[in-house]
Recover the amino acids of this structure.
């Protein structure tokens, strides 16, 4: 049907894709694109900050013993009480709380650094999970075909009915009802990763399936079959390297989406708890105080979140264009 | 001498890519007289289609016209502003593309596509334009046009669609039609019909034709004169009988030798060793020199100009060749003397 | 074409059935439906009797069919938290969500198509670059942050528009509408923008990619060779061809607006389905969750069928009459 033709986002690109990813052309276009370089630098910096969070943070924001209520809702260090026209903070900023504190006396900067870790961890594992799931489903659907293919693609259709956020909330609700109040942070993380993985696999599956269906009729696959290689070996060794390229572009953009999804769930109160806040949790907390003038609890985590997602999206966009032969 | 309908002088088209500037057309020159059919032949990639596109100003970026002139009935059109050039396209120059299956917008009735073209270029009212569309469809050999005019392209066969495309190209009575491989995408059985229709219509309306093709059979039947292209250059031009029967340029000789004729099946098909150079690696001097059986010293350094032969061939009006063998100053004999 | 539509209807029914089974499984096994009826201190024997009367001892397929049958008749059970029929709760809140989604759709489609076309046609200009940059920012801003930002600027700082609720609504039959009062209309502005912005950027990027693709086709080249005016080529020929594949994906995306409304309704305290669903998730109110799942699937199915029918109307290649073959 006509609807499946030509969307640049989803079309399986031609073969030889993976080889070309390392080609000088792609690299040259990377050097040529200042935006891509800047995005890569910002992404790398944020990853580094997350990695080194325990070393950089003045405070461990997850340790209740380090939180003093007397330090709660302090403005950023450069704010002097009510002097700044923006707002009407109750106290002056204090060292070492560079970006101020939240309602528990938690240092915002430390919380951001630790929150970044959650964002990146959930994003990365979520993408890994969904990519593995999607690639497997796509390989099997494309290679085996027939009823198996039809079944997998129908499941994908049903899946597309429900946005990630809804699936995640449902899983969250069910897990909560089963586990009750015994739920642990690890379980919450697992739920977040699983719900993200389960909601993003379709795109990989569709792309890989499309490419596999093109590749499997090529001579080299026929030849591999003739010399007696088994189907799984052919798929993984010969077909997969030819279809893995577009998966990278999808994975990068989905990484950004996964981070947004985690933040949204935490914002809605179905993600990380107040005691171990992620960026989304901080924004939820801050939103309660935004209208009484404590803007910094929302603003800094929000800005960090947007910066991370924007940088990753820029990288993904560039990657998609650089790897799309039709745009060259 | 009458003003030619189309006169192309030193037309050069370049494609600017990240790595290099490629010259797709290199100082191409030719003329087409009123009512004349000029065949343009050559392998794929020789620059035939680019020539057609450059004449009507439709070279897509990153390509651009880098030099030369295009004159339509004496008036220069290659440097016209976009809006004036648009008025030339479709009105004074009609265009027929290779693939009739993709030339027509699938979402519009063929009648609407005809009417919009007619009303764009004439003062006819919509209903008068529709009458004209019906007449054109009859002319291109579509029976019962009243029944077919409101059909969509997918309801027509490939041959029928190409007839519609011809009707579209001719609907504003242009002076010139550029037909870019009009039969390549069609069934062999339909090709002859389409050529016949095109020939008849252009003769009836006195329209000149630039017929781009790699099918020498079509050229032999249809064209009055023929231009042979190689690696973005015109290497030989002349009356069709001369060029087909007695090609001068070694490449043209090879090309003509590659046409099977029923008359002498016994003779082995000649083929040219090697292949046309890529645009990024056109050799200096004569671009054909690496494949040429007669190549000698000047061929690898001096570019042969397209001019009347001064040696080895009778001087026939309108006949030109770009080969040192026919240049009294550079031929091997001259060097020996 | 009829066969095509019948096949699509069957597929839709399949999707609905699959979601129905998931919803039923949640409804039946995650929470105990008996709790809907009885109070906590009801004796065991009485509970058993209730179980029996609810048919919970019947074979599972029978229960599934009964559940779906009731759901089709509008009976989704009783909410655990509110002790009210789910259908009544939904009926009360559906208008708020639908009106919000409608406004967001108009906003996202209208501007999305316009911006996409402009950025494709003016490719390489400053305007196109600005629009592309904007779309990237739009796709990188989480919905809830957009909401917070809009509230902060337009409600808090400039006090132009309300930051929460629907404003004054008018009851027309069983429907409450915010379209008929100035405050109701003002209340719709910020939530609609918040909800629609992400879809707007998606639609814009899709239209742009599709339009660039169409502009490269032979029939557009031929249209140019015919000397048609740029306006005709772009807005008559190219746009129509662009919009056909866009219909599908846009339909799919807009269907998800109902679910995305969860976020927007939370930020703006909008009394709609999404807020109700979120409350249900937090209080493990399974009947509402299951019913919401079915509702979203139902909306999706309806949108998909609409898209299929639109397709056959817009694309002559799918017309049934007069097809003589090619």
């Amino acid at each position: 049907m006509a609807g499946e033709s030509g969307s640049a986002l989803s079309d399986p690109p031609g073969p030889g894709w993976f080889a070309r990813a390392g080609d000088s052309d792609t690299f040259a276009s990377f050097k040529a694109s200042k935006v891509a370089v800047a995005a890569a630098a910002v992404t790398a910096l944020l990853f580094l900050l997350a990695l080194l969070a325990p070393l950089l943070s003045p405070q461990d924001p997850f340790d209740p013993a380090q939180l003093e209520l007397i330090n709660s809702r302090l403005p950023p260090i450069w704010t002097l009480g009510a002097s700044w026209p923006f707002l009407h903070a109750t106290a002056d900023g204090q060292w070492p709380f560079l970006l101020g504190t939240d309602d528990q006396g938690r240092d915002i900067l430390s919380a951001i650094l630790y929150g970044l870790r959650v964002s990146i961890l959930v994003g990365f594992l979520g993408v890994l999970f969904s990519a593995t799931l999607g690639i497997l489903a796509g390989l099997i659907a494309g290679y085996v075909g027939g009823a198996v293919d039809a079944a997998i693609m129908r499941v994908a259709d049903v899946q597309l009915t429900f946005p990630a956020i809804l699936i995640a909330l449902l899983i969250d609700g069910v897990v909560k009802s089963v586990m009750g109040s015994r739920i642990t942070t690890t379980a919450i993380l697992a739920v977040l990763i699983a719900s993200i993985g389960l909601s993003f696999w379709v795109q990989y599956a569709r792309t890989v399936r499309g490419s596999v269906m093109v590749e499997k009729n090529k001579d080299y696959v026929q030849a591999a079959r003739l010399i007696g290689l088994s189907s799984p070996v052919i798929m993984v060794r010969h077909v997969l390297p030819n279809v893995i390229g577009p998966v990278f572009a999808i994975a990068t953009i989905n990484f950004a989406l996964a981070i947004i999804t985690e933040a949204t769930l935490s914002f809605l109160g179905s993600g990380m708890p107040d005691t171990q806040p992620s960026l989304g949790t901080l924004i939820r907390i801050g939103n309660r105080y935004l209208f009484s003038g404590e803007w910094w609890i929302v603003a800094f985590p929000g800005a960090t979140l947007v910066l991370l997602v924007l940088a990753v999206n820029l990288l993904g966009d560039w990657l998609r264009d650089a790897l799309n032969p039709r745009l060259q | 001498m009458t003003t030619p309908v189309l006169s192309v002088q030193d037309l050069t088209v370049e494609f600017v890519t990240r790595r290099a500037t490629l010259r797709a057309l290199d100082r191409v020159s030719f003329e087409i007289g009123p009512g004349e059919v000029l065949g343009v032949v050559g392998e794929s990639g020789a620059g035939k289609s680019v020539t057609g596109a450059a004449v009507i100003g439709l070279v897509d970026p990153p390509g651009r016209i880098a030099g030369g002139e295009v004159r339509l009935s004496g008036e220069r059109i290659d440097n016209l502003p976009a809006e004036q050039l648009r008025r030339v396209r479709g009105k004074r120059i009609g265009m027929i593309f290779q693939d009739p299956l993709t030339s027509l917008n699938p979402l519009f009735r063929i009648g609407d596509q005809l009417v919009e073209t007619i009303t764009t270029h004439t003062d006819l009212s919509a209903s008068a334009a529709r009458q004209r569309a019906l007449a054109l469809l009859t002319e291109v050999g579509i029976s019962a046009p009243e029944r077919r005019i409101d059909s969509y392209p997918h309801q027509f066969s490939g041959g029928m669609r190409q007839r519609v495309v011809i009707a579209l190209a001719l609907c504003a009575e242009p002076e010139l039609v550029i037909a870019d491989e009009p039969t390549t995408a069609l069934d062999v059985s339909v090709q002859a019909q389409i050529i016949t229709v095109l020939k008849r219509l252009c003769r009836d309306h006195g329209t000149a034709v630039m017929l781009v093709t790699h099918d020498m059979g079509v050229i032999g039947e249809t064209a009055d004169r023929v231009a042979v292209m190689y690696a973005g250059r015109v290497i030989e031009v002349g009356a069709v009988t001369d060029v087909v029967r007695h090609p001068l340029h070694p490449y043209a000789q090879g090309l003509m030798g590659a046409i099977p004729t029923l008359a002498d099946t016994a003779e082995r098909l000649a083929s040219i060793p090697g292949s046309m150079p890529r645009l990024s690696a056109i050799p200096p001097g004569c671009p054909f020199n690496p494949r040429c059986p007669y190549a000698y010293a000047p061929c690898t350094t001096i570019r042969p100009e397209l001019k009347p032969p001064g040696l080895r061939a009778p001087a026939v009006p309108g006949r030109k060749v770009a080969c040192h063998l026919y240049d009294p100053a550079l031929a091997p004999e001259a060097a020996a003397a | 074409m009829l066969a095509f539509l019948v096949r699509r209807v069957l597929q839709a029914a399949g999707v609905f059935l699959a979601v129905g089974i998931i919803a039923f499984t949640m409804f039946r096994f995650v929470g105990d439906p008996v709790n809907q009826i009885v109070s906590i201190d009801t004796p065991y024997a009485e509970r058993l009797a209730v179980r029996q009367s609810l048919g919970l001892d019947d074979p599972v397929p029978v229960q599934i069919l009964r559940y779906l049958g009731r759901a089709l008749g509008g009976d989704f059970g009783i909410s655990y938290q509110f002790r009210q029929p789910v259908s009544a709760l939904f009926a009360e809140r559906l208008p708020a969500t639908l009106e919000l989604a409608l406004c967001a759709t108009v906003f996202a489609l209208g501007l999305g198509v316009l911006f996409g076309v402009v950025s494709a046609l003016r490719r390489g200009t400053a305007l196109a670059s600005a629009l592309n940059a904007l779309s990237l920012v739009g796709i990188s801003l989480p919905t809830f942050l957009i909401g917070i930002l809009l509230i902060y600027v337009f409600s808090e700082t400039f006090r132009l528009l309300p930051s929460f609720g629907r404003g004054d609504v008018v009851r027309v039959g069983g429907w409450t509408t915010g379209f008929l009062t100035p405050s109701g209309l003002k209340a719709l502005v910020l939530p609609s923008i918040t909800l629609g912005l992400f879809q707007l950027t998606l639609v814009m990027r899709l239209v742009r990619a599709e339009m660039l693709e169409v502009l490269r086709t032979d029939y557009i080249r031929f249209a140019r060779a015919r000397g048609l005016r740029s306006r005709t080529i772009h807005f008559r020929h190219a746009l129509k061809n662009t919009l056909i594949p866009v219909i599908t994906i846009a339909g799919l995306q807009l269907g998800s607006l109902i679910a995305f409304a969860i976020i927007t309704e939370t930020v703006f305290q909008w009394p709609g389905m999404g807020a109700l669903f979120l409350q249900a998730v937090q209080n493990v109110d399974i009947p509402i969750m299951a019913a919401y799942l079915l509702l979203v699937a139902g909306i999706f199915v309806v949108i998909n069928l609409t898209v299929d029918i639109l397709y056959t109307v817009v694309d002559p290649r799918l017309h049934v009459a007069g097809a003589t073959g090619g």
